[in-house]
Amino acid sequence: MTDSVSRSVYFVSESTGITAEAYGQSLLSQFGDARFIKRYTPFINTRDKAQALANELAHRAEAEGKKPIVFATMVDEEISTLLKHAECHYFELFDRFMPDVTEAIGMAPVRQSGISHGLINPANYEARIETINYALHNDDGMRLNKFGKADVILVGVSRSGKTPTCLYLALHYGMRAANYPITEEDFEKGDLPDELLAHKEKIFALTINPERLAAIRELRRPNSDYASLRRCYKDVQMAQDMFHRHGMTVLDSTTHSIEELASLIKKSL
After folding, report:
1. Which residues does 2 contact at the CB level (< 8 Å), separation at least 6?
2. pTM to 2 decimal places
């Protein structure tokens, strides 16, 4: 993109639009200097809805002087064809890969909408809900006696990214993920609880840059000792001493996103 004019981008699907959004966002992230106005249009599952969207795309193209970019996952060929001929740059993600995948697998796809996110397989859906509930019920070391059921346990100082990473592991990988925040009592004792160390083979430790930690804690408790740079440096250093003493795998949440942390953990396991 050679100018700074914002471009309209649509994420379109007959179902939730999660796949179209995830793939489209990943592609757009490679154009860091570009500006995009993102619009989410899930459940375009009738010809009337598709025609209304086509009319909107034509209006956007005329008003902005550039055709909108559309990332779509449309199983219905009639709806997809209608949008493909609208005033837009249309990228149908299924069509681009499905022929090659069909050839590789050796059978035709069912072409059914919403399979990846819906209730087509109740057992898988219930299992995913169970892992999310486990992550919520075993957040912040609330029930150490239940950690034996965990697939993975995250430890780290307060606000180092444990909870969101656990929820991501549960939601996207179906893993039972528990976490334990290192407390003042642990620092005073100089070690982690025995109940936690009993599951050391499942533990991944999260560290974080003290200055970044101070900024995060400041939002939670402004002008507190908890958020002070001195306290953050002390907490991080003492935690790292514990991690190294027990030979734990340490991941840095300063330089890795939640998605990256979860992927590294999944790969290690």
Report:
1. none
2. 0.69
